[in-house]
UniProtKB/TrEMBL annotation:
GO molecular function: acid-amino acid ligase activity
InterPro entries according to UniProt: GH3, GH3_C, GH3_M
GO cellular component entries: cytoplasm
The protein's name: GH3 auxin-responsive promoter
GH3 middle domain residues: 307-374
């Protein structure tokens, strides 16, 4: 028997945390085998809690006995629908949407609406959703990698910032990562970097510099965040240190946990250039302001995540063609089908009721229920009836990159409308870290792939009758960062809008780049 005295403190911590995390796996397995039972239990708990709120009284929650009752009595709501209630919570009223007091609000980047959104974050949603999801994320990673030494080093996370509630109440608002970081237990603070004081700094450029100072000297073994903002930090570290790749700075780096944007277009960049080692692993998570939704449980199933059904969130799935109806046909977890796009609707222990998240999802397996985020309900191009969604765009741009040796940094796309007898087209603005070896071939594969995977797009492209081939602008490195900074949207919680059904983003960025 090996004496504990031979273990370093970090090795002992690694061993202890792995043992504790593995104890979570039987519960996850039970959830996978009984999704309907688990969701019914969550539903019952939510309805009981909702009966004690103003919202619940208005919608007669006391008379709700079944999911069918709930779907008949309570309309599907957008943020705008719920805002009068959320505003009352922001002003300090209690028992409006949820029975317990609310002291935290997740402020979204407003990608689907011009103004920021303030999502209530309750004690229950922190404990039962966000924290539980974080621990299960690590437990599932360890299940895939039992020899992991990730806890012998620090986990890097790029947080947002916190501000006083703008309505003056004794509460705070900020990016969901900032809210979670601020409330983490001491043991979790110990294994992450940078310090909370730095992670929550408000001024992004100053925070970046402090993060470079600190993390370039740390034994970083894992990273949690979006690939786009992660790359900004890593580029700064490489510039500061003069190293060619980040593994020269963090030789024990083991896993990147990523979310918020589709990782597929960035996969080659990270695998070949950022972390050029087959031993580095990647795990995807679906953690939103509204709650922690899904985790990649099998690292060999790229892009597929296990829907976590016991986090105090009741899920409904609305067929896309009914997404704008107040009382749509909404499916439960036991009614969904494979390979169909659904608008995601949630009721949560944060006080959201039949709330439209704004994402579309597609199930890739049932029992267990794994899904992919296929796009945004408002992020698409349908100016000509082509119905191109984000998933289509990500697939097309990934295949074009693979065929031409290109490595993408960022992109956005929108319509170029018909005018003066000329047909329309899609217009793309793309930033590469490594440009295609054949630009014309890149353009052709992008177009051909969209035609192959989207029959509506293909029909509009037939003989160029409605749509011509896409028009693609390549912009210099750093363009999207500068554009986002100019818009006041820098930081881990902000994402470049991929698709738009208008020229709002296209014209803005092209005007700044080309001064047209």
């Amino acid at each position: 028997m090996v004496s504990l005295c031979y273990f370093s403190p970090m090795t002992f911590l690694n061993t202890t945390l792995k043992w504790l995390l593995q104890r979570r796996l039987p519960r996850i397995e039970a959830m996978k085998q009984n999704p309907g039972v688990v969701q019914q239990k969550v539903f019952n708990q939510l309805i009981r809690a909702g009966r004690r709120t103003d919202w619940g009284k208005k919608h007669a929650y006391k008379s709700i006995q079944t999911i069918q009752d709930f779907q008949k009595q309570v309309p599907v709501s957008s943020y705008e629908d719920l805002f009068p209630y959320i505003e009352r919570v922001l002003k300090g009223e209690n028992k409006v949407l949820w029975p317990s007091p609310v002291r935290w609000f997740s402020k979204s980047s407003g990608t689907t609406n011009a103004r920021s959104k303030f999502i209530p974050v309750t004690t229950e949603s922190l404990d039962e959703s966000h924290f539980k999801g974080g621990k299960d994320m690590m437990a599932l990673y360890i299940a895939n990698n039992p020899d992991s030494r990730a806890f012998e080093g620090k986990g890097l996370s790029i947080g947002g910032s916190l501000h006083q509630n703008p309505y003056g109440n004794n509460s705070a608002a900020g990016d969901v990562s900032a809210v979670v970081m601020k409330n983490l237990p001491s043991w979790a603070q110990y294994i992450r970097t940078p310090s909370l004081q730095v992670a929550l700094m408000d001024e992004w450029e100053a925070k970046l510099e402090r993060m470079v100072d600190i993390t370039s000297q740390e034994n970083v073994t894992s990273m949690l965040g979006t690939p786009t903002w992660g790359m900004v930090l890593i580029d700064r570290i490489l510039t500061r240190t003069g190293k060619s790749n980040i593994l020269e700075v963090w030789p024990n780096f083991e896993v990147m946990m990523h979310g918020a944007v589709n990782f597929q277009p960035y996969r080659e960049l990270f695998q070949q250039h950022v972390f050029p080692s087959k031993s580095v692993r990647y795990q995807e998570v679906y953690n939103a302001s509204e709650g922690f939704f899904a985790i990649q449980d099998d690292l060999s199933r790229v892009g597929e995540m296990l829907l976590m059904l016991d986090y105090g969130i009741f899920y409904e799935f609305v067929p896309i063609h009914e997404a704008d109806q107040p009382f749509p046909k909404a499916l439960t977890i036991e009614e969904v089908e494979l390979d169909k796009n659904y608008a995601l609707v949630v009721s949560t222990n944060g006080g959201l009721w039949r709330y439209k998240v704004g994402d579309t999802v597609r199930f890739t397996s049932l029992y267990p229920h794994r899904l992919k985020v296929s796009g945004r309900t408002k992020h698409f191009i349908n100016a000509f009836g082509e119905e191109v969604i984000v998933e289509n765009a990500e697939t097309a741009i990934t295949q074009a990159c693979e065929a031409t040796g290109a490595v993408i940094t960022d992109y956005t796309a929108g319509p170029s409308y018909m005018s003066n007898g000329a047909n329309g087209c899609h217009e793309w603005v793309i930033e590469f870290s490594q440009e295609p070896n054949d630009q014309q071939r890149f353009n052709q594969i992008l177009d051909d792939t969209l035609r192959r995977i989207n029959s509506d797009y293909d029909a509009k492209r037939y003989n160029d009758m409605v749509l011509k081939r896409p028009r693609i602008h390549i912009v210099p490195p750093g363009t999207f960062y500068a554009w986002m900074k100019q818009r006041g949207k820098v930081g881990g919680q902000h994402k470049v809008p991929r698709l738009a059904n208008s020229r709002e983003y296209l014209d803005d960025i092209l005007r700044k780049v080309f001064e047209v």
